[in-house]
Amino acid sequence: MGIFLVLYIVSLVIALVTVTFASAVNIITSLIPFLAVSVVIILVFMILLAFVASGKDGFQMQGWLKVTLGIIIAIAVIIAILFATGTWDDIYNYLAGKGQNSAVVSNVIFIVFIIVAVVVVLWGGKKKKD
């Protein structure tokens, strides 16, 4: 009963503030779309992560696999957000554009691939002790 009383008081205060001040209504109406989209993004991310992290029916993933799939899911959600907002086109045009930007970005990506390849070879080359 105590928590409901607190919730009632908080809702009464918010209602009185929005009735009294017009600027509060403008702030709330400008925040609602952002909050709704944020909640949906977080919900989708958590649902996808729950598929990876659940260990039911005797199927247990190793820790590194859970982390890897979590990172892949996070990257996929970020790309989906960028694509839905139209920002993906700007990023693609910057990365694949003509001129000096294209050369710098392609060199950085190539160097990252080389570093990843060297790390994979060094980690894969270690012999495991029995």
Summarize the structure.
The chain has helices at residues 2-20, 22-53, 63-85, 87-95, 100-124.
Task: Please describe what this structure looks like.
The protein has 130 residues and is mainly alpha-helical. It folds into 2 domains: 2-95, no CATH class; 101-130. The chain is 83% helix and 0% strand. It has 5 helices and no strands.
Task: Give the total of domains.
Answer: 2
Structural class: mainly alpha
Largest sheet features: none
Oligomer: single chain
**What's the total helix number?**
5
| Poorly predicted ranges | none
Characteristics:
130 residues, mainly alpha, 2 domains, 83% helix, 0% strand, flat
SSE layout:
Elements: H1 2-20, H2 22-53, H3 63-85, H4 87-95, H5 100-124
